[in-house]
């Protein structure tokens, strides 16, 4: 919010209700933040569905390759992939998505 310097010379009682302006600004900021959170949640939900589908269809050979790379057992790798499909779906999509897709 920018003010004209001429406006600053007007007494506060004549400028309007500054508290109402502040409240409106805060309400607008909260509404924008809520929309941003909703958009991010929708994107995350879509990524989770994709990642969980990829984990369900992953070949045992790919799980074994990842397990060797991470120095863990294949069962531990599969468990980690399932966990990451929920918490870090973009990571799982990057690991398991077919190249060129």
How would you explain this protein's 3D organization?
The chain has helices spanning 5-8, 12-15, 18-57, 60-70, 74-87, 89-96. With 101 residues, it is mainly α. α4 packs across α5. The protein starts with a helix and ends in a 5-residue tail after the last helix.
Largest sheet: none
Classify the beta-strand content into a percent band.
under 5%
* Broad shape: rod-shaped
Structural class: mainly alpha
As a percent range, the share of helical residues equals: over 70%
Indicate the mean pLDDT. 90
Question: Which radius of gyration do the C-alpha atoms yield?
Answer: 26 Å
The first-to-last residue Cα distance is 46 Å
Number of strands: 0
Give the count of helical stretches: 6
SSE diagram, text form:
Elements: H1 5-8, H2 12-15, H3 18-57, H4 60-70, H5 74-87, H6 89-96
Helix pairs in contact: 3-5, 3-6, 4-5, 5-6
